[in-house]
Design goal:
The chain is α/β, with parallel strands linked by helices and 229 residues long. 44% of the residues lie in helices and 12% in strands. It is built from eight helices and six strands. Strands 3-2-1-4-5-6 form a six-stranded parallel beta sheet, with helices on both faces. The mean pLDDT is 96.
Length: 229
Amino acid sequence: MIAAVVVDIEGTTSPTSSVREDLYGYTRARLPAWLAENRTGAAVSILATTRELAARPRADTDEVATILRGWLDSDVKAEPLKAAQGLICAEGFRNGALHGEFFADVPAALRAWHADGLALYVYSSGSVRNQQDWFTFARDGELASLISGYFDLTTAGGKREQASYEKIAGAIGTPAERILFLSDHPDELDAAVAAGWHAIGLARPGEPNPPRPPHRWVDTFADIHPAHG
């Protein structure tokens, strides 16, 4: 019997395009000014970590912005980039420039699963801050009250690593065999199954990751019934 459902965001609950165009676009536009404005405050560790990872110890804020933008354009899952994105986009969510965008079938399914007593969690490469805002400021009504917890690269580890799923299971206190993971990426499904989880792939029209055996694939949350087997 499934007790907990862990969901990915991009391509699973939400269109990849909405994340890339909205969150990435907002971050890209704001990065240089935000780093300059916060170079002695919120951006201190981001600047230091970026310089270290890029082996550019003397990079000024403009160069760090260029490095981070390059990582953003290449979809590099770097922790300082995700941290900067979380802080920058937090402003956008709160001033109404950004909203969480969800596939039409997702809100009703999450509400139904929550009503059935399932614990719901989010595991995404985006920062926990971004995840929380994405669900809190969902365009058609907040969904954050349905979510029991959030995990990202910093708190759980890489999404293609078995150990990350073992860490999440330990953190939420649920046996691996009672956790269901939903993602559009076959490698992530592989890692979850290797950790003893159940997994279902989302193959939504227009999304970039094609289905791959041996996993079960669906194109809507309406076809998933975790509380009923």
